[in-house]
Design goal:
This protein is of the alpha/beta class and about 260 residues long. It has a single domain (about 5-240), classed as Rossmann fold, CATH 3.40.50. The chain is built from eight helices and ten strands. It has helices at about 45-50, 95-100, 105-110, 115-130, 145-155, 175-190, 200-210, 230-240; strands at about 5-15, 20-30, 35-40, 60-65, 65-70, 80, 160-165, 195-200, 210-215, 220-225. It has a six-stranded mixed β-sheet, with helices on both faces. It has a four-stranded antiparallel β-sheet with strand order 2-1-4-5, with helices on one face. Helix 4 packs across helix 5. The longest helix is centred in the C-terminal third of the chain and has 18 residues, at about 175-190. The protein is globular, with a radius of gyration of 18 Å.
Length: about 260
């Protein structure tokens, strides 16, 4: 019997005010995959991720590691980085350490104090994203790229097996995007972290991910990235608007 998928949906449907935003999406993501999700603005990509983690109601079925989402309780196995975390409320006085430590709440449980191992995991996550020396800094004092890595560290602190990222490089300069995608490549290849990444950055997707899923309310394409001839084909065919290329992202993962 094959192992359960990290993520599986069947006829996943989300409606807002009578309008269907995500329409009968059936998808399976297995352990170790690196999946890029593309599509035009308003295609339901962010809503799809929100449904997976329980932020919006849906019809159909979602399973995480073989368990229906409504019965799933091991949320430390899933890391989620939503949109716009690079632009936080500047009046929130949290430090980097405090933000990253919140990623341990899924393992520790709400209301229970953080232990030594939680703080060690948070420090390790900050080190993994290259911010080990900024733990005491206020989040509001960091650049957009640094904030993005802080929230990635928060997700990693829980030691997830599945990482969901929603437009993580929007508004970040090309050089910082390059560094960010290199980090994702490392996490996927060297740590075997399963990644589902929603992005308009067709250049990085084309050169990094294993598999491309095009979503425009429904799944309109789902195939190996290596089956797509060029970046131009990617954004023309699926309506994704490319961000400026930043070059240098390795494509060894497109096997």
């Amino acid at each position: 019997m094959p192992p359960a998928a990290c993520l599986a949906t069947q006829d996943l449907t989300v409606r807002y005010h009578g309008e269907t935003v995500v329409d009968r999406v059936t998808l399976r993501v297995d352990s170790g995959e690196y999946v890029g999700v593309v599509g035009p603005n308003g295609a339901g990509k962010s809503t799809f991720l929100k449904a997976l983690v329980g932020l919006v109601p849906f019809d159909g079925r979602v399973e995480l590691f073989g368990t229906p989402r409504e019965r799933f309780g091991a949320w430390h196995r899933v890391g989620y980085v939503p949109q716009h975390v690079a632009h936080p409320n500047p009046h929130i006085p949290a430090t980097v350490d405090e933000i990253v430590l919140l990623g341990r709440a899924g393992r520790r449980g709400l209301g229970r104090p953080f232990a030594r191992e939680d703080r060690a995991a948070a420090r390790a996550a900050l080190s993994a994203v290259g911010l080990a020396d900024l733990g005491r800094a206020r989040l509001s004092t960091l650049s957009g790229g640094q904030r993005q890595r802080v929230h990635l560290a928060r997700a990693l602190a829980g030691e997830p097996e599945l990482l969901l990222l929603d437009e993580p490089t929007t508004g970040i300069d090309p050089a910082t995007r390059h560094t960010f995608y290199e980090l994702l490549d490392h996490l996927n290849h060297d740590r075997a972290l399963t990644i589902v990444l929603v992005s308009h950055d067709t250049h990085s997707l084309f050169h990094s991910v294993h598999r491309i899923v095009a979503l425009n309310r429904r799944v309109t394409f789902d195939a190996a990235a290596s089956s797509i001839a060029s970046e131009e084909d990617l954004h023309h065919l699926f309506g994704a608007h490319p961000e400026p290329a930043h070059g240098g992202v390795r494509d060894a993962s497109r096997a």
